[in-house]
Amino acid sequence: MPGWAPSSVRRGGGGSRVEAPVTVRGYLLCVFAAFGGILFGYDSGYINGVLGMNYVKLEFGHPGSIDPSAYQGHLYATREKSLITSILSAGTFFGALFAGSLADWVGRRATIIAGCAVFSLGVVLQVAATTVALLVPGRLIAGIGVGFVSAIIILYMSEVAPKSVRGAIVSGYQFCITIGLLLAAVVDQSTSTRMDTTSYRIPMGLQWLWALILGVGLFLLPESPRWYVKKDRLEEAAKALATLRGQPADSPYIKDELAELVANYRHEAHMQTGWADCFRGGWKPSGNLRRVVLGMALQMMQQWTGVNFIFYYGTTFFTQVGIKNAFLISMITTAVNVGSTPISFWTIEKLGRRTLLIYGAIGMLVCEFIIAIVGTVAEGSQAAGYCLIIFTCIYIFFFASTWGPAAWVVIGEIFPLPIRAKGVALATASNWFWNFVIGFITPYMVDADYGNMRTKVFFVWGATCTLCVVFAWLLVPETKGLSLEQVDRMLEQTTPRNSSKWEPTFSYADEDAKTGPGRASGVEHLEHSHV
Ligand code: BGC
User: Fold this and answer.
1) What's the whole-model pTM score?
2) Ligand 1 test: best mutation among 307, 431, 436, most atoms within 8 Å of CB?
3) What is the whole-number distance in angstroms between the Cα of residue 420 and the centre of ligand 1?
4) Which domains are present in the chain?
5) Distance CA 283, CA 252 (A)
6) What is the pLDDT of residues 414-432, one digit of tens each?
7) Does the first or last residue of the chain, that is N or C, have fewer Cβ atoms within 10 Å of its Cβ?
8) Residue with CA nearest ligand 1 atom 2
9) pLDDT greater than 60 at residue 522
10) What is the C-alpha separation between 444 and 512, in angstroms, rounded?
């Protein structure tokens, strides 16, 4: 059933190599890994609700607290609360970096499955915990697993997806993150009044189900053909491609796609693949350093849109500025997040990544400045309250349909194969690092006994979103409709601002065919082998 999915293939001489038509089965195979987003979203979301539960305060807290949020005088020390929350980001940060090496060594799929196993171990410790001393290592180990999963899923999905729907497929990952966040809110809410260990053991134990589904499901899927090419295992690469594209391994589609992967890899194979190589190549758009900085900065800027201020601190912030039903409003923002993300499945291919990033940031900054200005001039009024709620929802709509997915899509596309695993890992680690930093500092900006900025904090997010516009306009190239190999060539030949107009007039395989080495020595023999 070709043609049913959003498609964005660019024309041009080299683009004439036609990719196999995208079938529903092929699409579903590629999109399955997106399920890992549930792990990401659920894990970052569930702990807030759990820490707010009365039974958890009794079990994990200490008596004698006079804080109004204590339950029967029981509460955790501030440093414990912050440690329990933030240790996950520390784990994910290191997990993502380590996974960058592992994914080159044992494969993308195997690294994600290993991530699920590590994560499961962390979950066992968390469920068993009745003290902070066991909960913290549990969160740390689970975090390492989430780090593996969150970095390598982007890599895997970008590498297995057909180019015409790659953006839509990777956006599915963001969609799952939003579902994970929503699920966490719903599960927390439904167990929050239980006065026994099931109040927290149910939300914690459920994490394991997501890891199980992902790990077992991936076990049945093929490894990334690009990893096989990197390892010079061409027959397996052909088999994996054939399964993913729903074509026989000796079909011309598979041979052509594989020839291009092999030729491109040979073209780049002189590059080394160590960590230090990620920082070579200088500031030209095709240099490794420039690409790594772009990926890391993109994920940093995604965090500086301020989105997690709403998801991590929304409930307390809405209460602080006098909004009743703060919990309900938080649920609504989470639901808007889920509901708006699928729009990107289509727009990311039709309008492109760069356009979404530029206009999405403009949409967000307008909402943020409106909230800040109205909240400052009419502080405490009903109008300011409505304004905050409505524009927060519109702001989340813009995030979810643009920066949420596009930041992940772009980091899967901009790195050349020799450093792709490490590049994606560094960018993902940057996401977690800034996630942690911003999560850590925002309470100091808004809490009454510190910065007490109230809605003025949106001036900060408005300003950082303005930087996001400038950043996207100056530095983010348009990658839609190109194979990952064509993206390499595009970065060598044009600038980010002109990238949307670039058309592939070249293919590595054609060039190799002219000059000799690639097809003949690499792929041609597969015609005679049993793949
Ligand atoms: C971000 C997360 C955020 C989530 C919200 C993701 O793309 O990286 O930090 O919580 O979107 O949907």
Assistant:
1) 0.88
2) 307
3) 22
4) 22-221 (1.20.1250.20), 280-500 (1.20.1250.20)
5) 38
6) 999 889 999 999 999 999 9
7) N
8) 308
9) no
10) 58
